[in-house]
Amino acid sequence: MFDSGSTTFMILCTSLVMLMTPGLAFFYGGLACKRNILGIMVQTFVSLGVTTIMWVTIGYSLCFSGGEGGIIGNLDWVFLKGIAFDQAFDNGKYPVYIFVAYQMMFAIITPALITGAFINRVTFKAYLIFLVVWQLFVYYPFVHMVWGGGILAEWGVLDFAGGIVVHTTAGFAALASVIYVGKRRNTNSPPNSIPLVAIGTGLLWFGWYGFNAGSQLDVDAISTLAFLNTDVAASFAAITWLIIEWIKEGQPKFVGLLTGAVAGLATITPAAGFVPLWAAMLIGIAAGSVCFLAVQMKNKLGWDDALDVWGVHGVGGALGTILLGVFAFSHINGQSGLLEGNVSFFLKEVTAVAIGAAYAFIFTYLMLVLINLISPVKTTEEEEEIGIDQALHGEKAYDEGSL
């Protein structure tokens, strides 16, 4: 009944995207100081559990059922009722359950991206509330509007794998979080393990092939183009960041190389299946340059985005969406961009990313204010000084003296 090759491909891509969440935990955990390794990692890993529960109960339904041309779906598929395990997806090549699982992995990692911004400044209880509410009121509506047949999809907005839905919303939510919780009391927090950052980057890069190639939801020329565009953009961005930082600092920095790669991955995400290979090269160079400058600007403005979530994911996702509006070519995936004279599509992409950034920022800030009425959002001075590993979780990542 089903195509075994397509089914296997989607299972593999789903598994790759799942691997990105542990990869993100290693990436953030390595960048954290020794007192806050487990705290940032548990905030990432807990999304695997909480978001899965939310997704199979109400999330998938709110994102992908009903509400054509609207902002949010309905509850027709709550608890996945009415969806048989052997029901075919729209293209008839594999069961719809694998699409449910694939999209669930996107939902898991998106709020986890935000955690790197407010490392050691947010209590675990407040974060759990944040995790639930942010998905309900930010992530689910944008999934529906862009990928679930909602208002932005009907308007003609495209986002191949999450430039708006994932990276812009998460990045600007991170910025709002940073502004709300304020600066760390002690900003002298060097990475505890750069090798751990490298492992995390490798897992993210590897998983991103499933993130982007799988978003074609089929095995064809576009999925292979998206795969290659992903690697090329990441590589060009990594080297661009390395060179810029080398010139500026006088030394080539390994963390800079790794951060540049992630910036390139985030930036190519919305455009991976719509642009030619040469455009992916330019997008990678733009990602390495613009995201580096965004981080520098953040530092000058005094925003304590500890792990540069806004500069890498927020700016990268927005930049990639805008460049999709420039470099899309109709002979690739049916959509023309600014270079083919389609000004309308370009303006739609710019407008959509502005809406996503503004809404995510404003809602997140207000949400944190309201959460604070229920449970304290900010850690105390003592908790921050001790570190959230010991203060909030009663655990240590390493035995004393090992690092």
- Structural class of the secondary structure composition? mainly alpha
Largest sheet, in brief, is: none
Write the CATH architecture name: Orthogonal Bundle
Q: Helical percent range? A: 55-70%
- Our estimate of the beta-strand percent is under 5%
Write the layout of secondary structure elements.
Blueprint: H1 4-31, H2 37-64, H3 96-114, H4 124-147, H5 151-155, H6 163-181, H7 194-213, H8 221-249, H9 254-268, H10 277-301, H11 309-327, H12 330-333, H13 343-374, H14 381-386, H15 388-393
Helix pairs in contact: 1-2, 1-3, 1-7, 2-3, 2-4, 3-4, 3-6, 4-6, 4-13, 6-11, 6-13, 7-8, 7-9, 8-9, 8-10, 9-10, 9-11, 10-11, 11-13
Summarize this entry quickly:
This protein is an all-alpha fold and 403 residues long. The protein is built from 15 helices and no strands.
Plain-language structure description:
The chain is mainly alpha-helical and 403 residues long. It has a single domain (4-389), classed as Ammonium transporter fold, CATH 1.10.3430. Helices cover 69% and strands 0% of the residues. It contains 15 helices and no strands. The chain has helices at 4-31, 37-64, 96-114, 124-147, 151-155, 163-181, 194-213, 221-249, 254-268, 277-301, 309-327, 330-333, 343-374, 381-386, 388-393. Helix 1 (4-31) runs antiparallel to helix 2 and helix 9 packs across helix 11. The longest helix is centred in the last third of the chain and has 32 residues, at 343-374. The mean pLDDT is 96.
